[in-house]
Fold:
Amino acid sequence: MAKKILVVDNEEDILATVKTALESNNYTVITAKSGKECLEKLEEKPDLILLDVMMPEMSGWDVYQKIKKRKLNVRVVFLTVLEASPKRKAELMSAGIVDYITKPFSPNALLETVRRILG
Amino acid sequence: MPVVWKMGKLRQCKMAAKSTKNSSRKEAAKLERELEKLHRKRAVQEKELENCRALFATLPEMIIVLDPKGKVLDVNKNVYKFTGYSKKEVAGKYIFRFPFIPLKSKKILLKKFAARVLGKKVEPYTLTIKDKKGKQYEMKIVASTIRDKQGRLVKDLVVASDITEEQRTTNKLKDSKIYLDTMGDALVVINGRDKRIVAVNKAFTKLGGYSEKETIGKNIFKIFPKREKAKHKKEMRNAARTGKAAKFDAIALTKSGKEIPVSISGTAVLDSKGRPTNFVWVFRDISEKLEAEEMLRESEEKYRHLVENAGEPIFSVKVDGTFISMNKTAANELGGKPSDFIGKTMGDLFPKKIADGQMRTITHAISKGEGIDSESKSVVRGKERWYSAHIEPIKNREGKINFAQLIVHDITPLKKVEEEMAKAFVELKKLDKLKADFMNIAAHELKTPITPIRGYVEIMLNKELPREKETQFLSIVHRNTLRLELLINDVLDISRLESRAMRFDMQNLDIVKIIKTVEQDMKAAANEKKIKIGHKIKGKLPIVKGDKRRISQVLGNLVKNAVKFTKKGGITINAFTKNGNVVVEVKDTGIGISDENIPKLFTKFFQAQTSETREAGGTGLGLAICKGIIEEHGGEVGVKSRQGKGSTFYFSLPRK
Structure:
């Protein structure tokens, strides 16, 4: 069965880009335009969440805290424009973030990361 | 003794009286009167003689009368006391033969006697004699001679006084001279009777500039100014009477006549009868001490002057808060003279809370025993001031601290600067954060459109896609390219405005036409949100100058914002004249702006309150660009708004 990936970003064009890249590689993609929507779509039990950090209303970080509280078996990769410092990266990793993809990204690199995580 | 030869003259007179028995009665009466006179005279003389004999017998001195050959004619009873020989034993014998005169003394005696026989003047001299038991006496010899008409010596009267004790102390003092010479203080030994100098030490000669020879035998009062003689005599008397050391300050004269201040401590050396044989005066040169005292006094004077006239307030406070001294500056600060405040307490002059606080600090310094620096707020003459103070506990000679001295510095202006700097620092920090925030927003805004551009271009490069898919992807790429272009334009505009490098094509503006064009351009966006858009022009507007494209940009921006933040209702563009200037307003019925955010609205990069939650898209540069452009035109921008009740943004352009 195809792995299910939830992509969260307030920018529709970015959602579209990620969706296109992933679907052409036989992943099932569901999208959310906000943190709130993301939390709703957790019911669909994604295997992986690609989560944008800089979003209005609820930041990716806040969303992640809520996901963690629900104790779901889901891996989360952050999508962000900001280069994280090694310290910040270590913090994120220790917080349970699986990986960290910097925008703009190459679709091939994105796929590689996703494949590595989902096997 | 003159009495002896006068007796012979009396006899002559008697004989003369007998030979005139046969003269006339008148003569006889005259003679009788003469005789009577002579009798009276003789009685007087006999009385005198009697006195002389008594004196001869009772004098403490030993008296020996010698004939020209040195044979003893007469002695007083003291001969027995000093020699152990009776009058009988010595009478009629040659003095030189007696063993009470040792060989050495005999030689001196012979020499002196011979000199007297030859008619030479002989000064008093000292002679050692020995009694039968071998006890030695030092005798001072004064001799007088009785001579006949031819000047030949008839009788030699030797008066010998006992100076043994005196000599002994003098010798003792002379013996200790070797020690005395090593003394730093000047020392002089004075003869108790004649006040002549007996001995001095090296320090004395050095102090006075005299040689030792010059001082010995000299009257002590020659080395003191005349005016001080009475003082020394008094001190000598007291020392002799009380047996206590005299201590007093005096002036010593050097050989060259220079006066040196000295402190003298002196003692009287008394003989067994309590008479002073010697005085020992020890001098200490106190000119340096006096000089040091003078310097100290001068420096204290200087210090006082310094404190009195210091530009800083200086005052002293007792442990109980009482002011005990204060300089003029301190009094000025309090609005009066020092005398107005000395004796008053901290509590009298300052509000209780401040006075208590000050006293706590002062008490702390006093209990610590060392100076401390403090900074405090005070209220002086109703004005709030900041002071820094150095508090120094002052010790008295016993090391006890009774008060503290405060040197105060008014740091109110400094504090103001400090406060302003702290404020500026906070502002700077804020600005810094704004900048960092902007960098984050800018990075986000720039990278967001690039992400789909790069993503789709790469997807299309990797795989051949159907035409319709390609068109769909390319339109996404195109849209994002335009978005990126807008953003780059905004960033360029703001950096041009900041560096004042924006060029304006100034010309007469038709404001109404610009309003109509912008309204037309925005109509579609407004219609899409079901918002009405319209305009109202009040009266005839004056002609103003400006860059048509830039003013259109400003108005467009304001209307675009209004559309963005308005959900229902409408937008009105108003134009009117105020104070001769043209004012254009964009009034909406949107969400409004909180009072807190209004002042920050036109600062660039303001929009994102936190970097991660932004309520609206955009760069946050639009209003900052509007403000920059309008201000470059000499106009003003502003906003009136209430949260939830809509906003009115306006700008003015000055009349030409």
